[in-house]
Write a structure and sequence with these properties.
The complex is a heterodimer of chains A (about 240) and B (about 220). With about 240 residues, chain A is of the alpha/beta class. Chain A contains nine helices and ten strands. Chain A is globular. Chain B has a single domain, classed as MetI-like fold (Orthogonal Bundle), CATH 1.10.3720. Chain B is about 80% helix and about 0% strand. The N and C termini of chain B lie far apart (about 55 Å). Classes of the chains: A alpha/beta (about 240), B mainly alpha (about 220).
Chain lengths: ~240, ~220
């Protein structure tokens, strides 16, 4: 088992607030890892540190595929290997669905228009959005936009995909279509780190679940182990609170 | 002399028209040079202000604030009458173009800065997460969106620059206003001034209407 992402001794402070308080985490190739925890527990900050959208406090470090993630000329090339899906989609509003997906492969991987086009078509089919290829993001529903965002990240053929609460800003009826796409990805062997409030998704799809609270990893386990027999009181309290209704 | 002969004297119009046209050409040329160089430099200054190291960023901010505070007429006089004392003698056209560009650049930089800052942070983050270089992020993602936002205020700035070219007549630039006052003196009749005013209006009214249209359109659809 080789680690594709290693997080070592990660600390992150925002002023006097400690967002991350010593995180160590290894994610294996092909693994699906779900991170759960109350809001403010640092789970989004953690995955945003993996591609350095948040800076990392010394001496912690993040290693992706053997390369230390840090500011400098290598940063863009490391980021190209790490796909990210945001809570608020962040599609480029002035580009069509197709253009959104083609942009990074053409600019970063320098593939030809034809190659990028074929690839985008394939990805649009994979996320079920091919009939919307020439629409603009604001003509799509939230669920469709998030599926485009997933296709856009996949177009770079990243080594790992980060999902930062991908269904949290969706209307309830659209959550399912996005989770279905993510399930398909998980089964196809894509390495995924998913910050989520969808306990059902975590228990069905994750290989491993991490529970975070107050900037620390409280407990890690298989979905079965963590959801059915949590060892820590904080985990039990959280699960009782979210699963109670 | 009656009202019409005084202010709309046909003979005066005919005889002064060539002079006014040559002035209009100078005004247009001066306006175009100042607008274009102000745009290019303004975008550059905005990027320095936003993204350069602290000393450069502060220098850009000081430049922007100073040149938005100084009255253009004062700047023009300093450039034309004071710079020769330190050995820098510029032609009237160069002086006027320099002063107009410096001021237009400061306003343009501020407009671009506001436009870029209006782009949601998620657009920057999505670009960075995809591995786009800084240049591609700006050129492909941020600026196309920012430009939609800044077109109305930039057009307003263009209107101001063209109007401000009239100030260049104080440094003996043969622009539209200068030629009109010249013709007025020559003919001992204010008609050329009226014609010049009408020319300014004919030139700028379409731009003024364009700003209104763009602003209305922008309110309607925020994205495209």
């Amino acid at each position: 088992m080789t680690a594709i992402v290693s997080v070592r001794n990660l600390h992150k402070r925002f002023g006097s607030f400690t967002a991350l308080d010593g995180i160590d985490l290894e994610v294996a190739e092909g693994e699906v890892l779900c991170i759960i925890g109350p809001s403010g527990s640092g789970k989004s900050t953690l995955i945003r540190c993996i591609n350095l959208l948040e800076s990392i406090d010394a001496p912690g470090e993040v290693v992706v595929d053997g390369i230390i993630v840090r500011r400098g000329k290598d940063l863009a090339s490391v980021r190209a290997e790490v796909g990210m899906v945001f809570q608020s989609f962040n599609l480029f509003p002035h580009m069509t669905v197709r253009e959104n997906i083609k942009l990074a492969p053409m600019r970063v991987r320098k593939v030809t228009d034809q190659v990028a086009d074929d690839k985008s078509l394939q990805l649009m089919e994979r996320v079920g959005i091919e009939s919307q290829a020439d629409k603009y993001p604001d003509q799509l529903s939230g669920g469709e936009q998030q599926r485009v965002a997933i296709a856009r990240a996949l177009a770079m053929e990243p080594k790992v995909m980060l999902f930062d609460e991908p269904t949290s800003s969706l209307d309830p009826e659209m959550v399912g279509e996005v989770l279905d796409v993510m399930k398909k990805l998980a089964h196809s062997g894509v390495t995924m780190i998913v910050v989520t409030h969808e306990m059902g998704f975590a228990s069905q799809v994750a290989d491993r679940v991490v529970f975070m609270d107050a900037g620390q990893i409280v407990e890690t386990g298989t979905p079965q182990g963590l959801f059915e027999s949590p060892q820590e009181k904080r985990t039990r309290d959280f699960l009782n609170a979210v699963l109670a209704h | 002399m009656g009202f019409v002969e005084t202010f709309f004297n046909w003979d005066v119009i005919v005889s002064s028209f060539p002079l006014l046209l040559s002035g209009l050409r100078v005004t247009l040329f001066l306006g175009a040079v100042s607008i274009i160089s102000g745009l290019v430099l303004g975008l550059f200054v905005a990027l320095v202000r936003l993204y350069a190291n602290r000393p450069f960023s502060i220098a850009a901010k000081i430049y922007i604030d100073v040149f938005r505070s100084i009255p253009l007429l004062v700047l023009l006089i300093v450039v034309y009458y004071a710079l020769p004392f330190v050995g820098l003698r510029l032609s009237p056209f160069m002086s006027a173009a320099l002063a107009l560009t410096l001021v237009s650049c400061a306003y343009t930089a501020e407009i671009f800065r506001a436009g870029i800052e209006a782009i949601p942070r998620g657009q920057f983050e999505a670009s960075q997460a995809l591995g786009l270089s800084y240049r591609h992020m700006m050129v492909d993602v941020i600026l196309p969106q920012a430009i939609r936002i800044v077109i109305p205020p930039l057009t307003n700035n263009c209107i101001n620059v063209v109007k401000d070219t009239a100030l260049a007549s104080v440094v003996a630039m043969p622009d539209l206003l200068k030629q009109a006052t010249q013709a007025q003196a020559l003919e001992a009749n204010p008609t050329p001034l009226i014609v010049a005013a009408l020319m300014y209006i004919a030139l700028l009214w379409p731009l003024v209407m364009l700003v209104g249209r763009l602003e209305k359109k922008h309110r309607g659809e925020t994205h495209r």
